[in-house]
């Protein structure tokens, strides 16, 4: 008998009715919910289940799979982004006569550990005093305009961390942290402090009361931008003896924040900056600079795990901008331009697929994070990407490591399945609640005997049924995938 290749095998599978292969998701469709789903066996391409697999829907954070794949394709898992410090002037007996410049390198995961190392290296380079200013150079991307309502609103105020404005010089995901500890006795104010430093641009307004031990905790923290300062407006209460709470809020002015944070680290390292801080603008002309120090970030493979498991929108969109610049985009670069290039990448993956059903897909990406609601992907698109990565043997370990296994996940919504669900699925989640409710899940399955499967399920509300309960959607996806795992990947008729 002639053995069938992947495309032939799928053509044969297309004649098999999968109408009852995903019964819980079918039930949602009958209620007016839009669902796109496909489950395949990776090695032979056999379709195990499908439900409207070509229907393009809002993918939410499943978009990040494309950002991760594109980054691995271009740089590999060992890539490390570099942040530099240069000087604009001579150094004489430990004094820099001129400005010190922090040059953003577009590191998506630049945190305090790298800043501290960089500050120490400036001191080791022989600079103890800067008689000019500390400047931040964010021109790696240029000024990045906000294109989502979330980030535009965050320019004014925010109660979240995920909506931070984008900058090639951003630090700590462009978030500031406020810690709240109980006071000494009931009726006294709680102790409030910014971590790691109290900075001139950060302020606190309001107070939080300490209550009797065992009382419930109710705390609200809103960050507002007021005349260039980031004001944390606080209210509520915390019980005596309660644990310290930390609240991360996006910062409206990431470049100025990076300057103040780095200046504080320089002071800790023994470098005094006499002239304050500032930001270099796009059209500024600078004198010739000389290298002082540099630091490399953590490897891309490690950053992708943090980006995917914790669904970090800031990291994903910074990485998309990095990828666009590396792909030849002109600076200043915008998120829509990065999205256009990611769309080209996604369509190329479809065109190169061995699966007939992938060739007609028209994926559309407007960002690298999925925070933009104009993104559109079908289950066919996402499944084709998963198979593409599976066969990129150098990249696949880092790509797979970024997915979460329900038994070990910090994503609480994935917990609660049977043993097969808990241990034989590795996936990326996505969710939104506007303009309709969205839940998406995509990744890999392991069948008994070690066979690999790939799956993508996108669940969107519709005009008829705009809002589907998140846990209702999760339960349906879990039920149907558990059924396929229990059947060991046998397509049900």
Outline the structure in words:
By secondary structure, this protein is of the alpha/beta class. Helix content is 29%, strand content 25%. It folds into 3 domains: 6-77 and 302-486, Beta-lactamase; 82-144 and 255-295, D-Ala-D-Ala carboxypeptidase C, peptidase S13 (D-tyrosyl-trna(Tyr) Deacylase, Chain: A, 3-Layer(bba) Sandwich), CATH 3.50.80; 149-250, no CATH class. It has helices at 6-13, 23-30, 64-75, 112-124, 149-154, 254-268, 300-309, 313-326, 335-352, 379-390, 396-401, 419-423, 470-486; strands spanning 34-41, 47-51, 82-88, 91-92, 95-96, 99-103, 129-130, 134-137, 157-158, 175-181, 191-195, 202-206, 209-211, 218-226, 229-239, 245-250, 272-273, 277-279, 290-296, 425-432, 438-446, 452-460. The strands form 5 sheets. It has a 5-stranded antiparallel β-sheet, with helices on both faces. It has a 5-stranded mixed β-sheet with strand order 18-8-6-3-19, with helices on one face. Strands 9, 12, 13, 14 and 15 form a 5-stranded mixed β-sheet that branches. Strand 4 (91-92) and strand 5 (95-96) form a beta hairpin. The model is unreliable at 1-20 (pLDDT under 50).
């Amino acid at each position: 008998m002639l053995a069938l290749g992947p495309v032939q095998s799928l053509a044969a599978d297309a004649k098999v009715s999968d109408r009852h292969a995903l019964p819980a998701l079918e039930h949602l469709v009958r209620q007016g919910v839009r669902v796109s789903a496909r489950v395949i066996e990776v090695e032979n391409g056999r379709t195990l289940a499908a439900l409207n697999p070509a229907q393009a829907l809002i993918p939410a954070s499943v978009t990040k799979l494309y950002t991760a794949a594109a980054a691995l394709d271009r740089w590999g898992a060992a890539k490390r982004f570099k942040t530099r410090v240069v000087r604009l002037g001579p150094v004489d007996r430990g004094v820099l006569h001129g400005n010190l410049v922090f040059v953003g390198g577009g590191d998506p995961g630049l945190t305090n550990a790298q800043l501290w190392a960089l500050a120490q290296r400036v001191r080791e380079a022989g600079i103890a005093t800067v008689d000019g200013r500390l400047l931040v150079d964010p021109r790696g991307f240029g000024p990045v305009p906000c294109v989502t309502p979330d980030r535009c609103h965050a320019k004014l105020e925010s109660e979240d961390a995920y909506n931070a404005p984008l900058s090639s010089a951003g630090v700590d995901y462009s978030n500031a942290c406020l810690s709240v500890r109980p006071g000494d006795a009931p009726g006294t104010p709680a102790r409030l402090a910014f971590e790691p430093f109290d900075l001139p641009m950060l302020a606190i307004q309001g107070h939080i009361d300490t209550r009797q031990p065992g009382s419930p905790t109710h705390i609200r923290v809103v960050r507002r931008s007021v005349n260039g300062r980031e004001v944390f407006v606080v209210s509520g209460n915390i019980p005596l003896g309660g644990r310290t709470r930390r609240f991360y809020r996006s910062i409206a002015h990431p470049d100025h924040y990076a300057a103040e944070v780095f200046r504080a680290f320089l002071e800790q390292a023994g470098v005094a900056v006499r002239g304050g801080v500032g930001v270099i603008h796009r059209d500024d002309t600078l004198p010739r600079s000389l290298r002082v120090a540099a630091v490399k970030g953590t490897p891309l493979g490690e950053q992708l795990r943090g980006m995917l498991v914790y669904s970090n929108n800031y990291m994903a969109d910074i990485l998309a901008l990095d990828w666009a610049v590396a792909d030849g985009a002109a600076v200043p670069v915008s998120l829509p331009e990065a999205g256009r290039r990611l769309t080209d990448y996604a369509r190329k993956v479809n065109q190169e697929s061995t699966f007939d059903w992938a060739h007609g897909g028209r994926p559309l990406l407007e960002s690298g994070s999925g925070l933009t609601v104009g993104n559109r992907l079908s289950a066919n698109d996402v499944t084709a990407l998963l198979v593409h990565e599976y066969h990129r043997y150098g990249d696949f370990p880092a790509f797979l490591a970024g997915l979460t296994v329900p038994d070990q996940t910090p994503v609480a919504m994935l917990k609660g399945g049977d043993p097969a669900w808990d241990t034989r699925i590795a996936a990326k989640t996505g969710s939104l609640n506007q303009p309709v409710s969205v839940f998406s899940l995509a990744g890999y399955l392991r069948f008994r005997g070690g066979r690999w499967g790939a799956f993508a399920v996108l669940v969107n509300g519709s005009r008829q049924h705009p809002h589907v309960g998140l846990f209702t959607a999760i339960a349906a996806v879990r039920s149907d995938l558990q059924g396929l795992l229990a059947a060991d990947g046998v397509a049900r008729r």
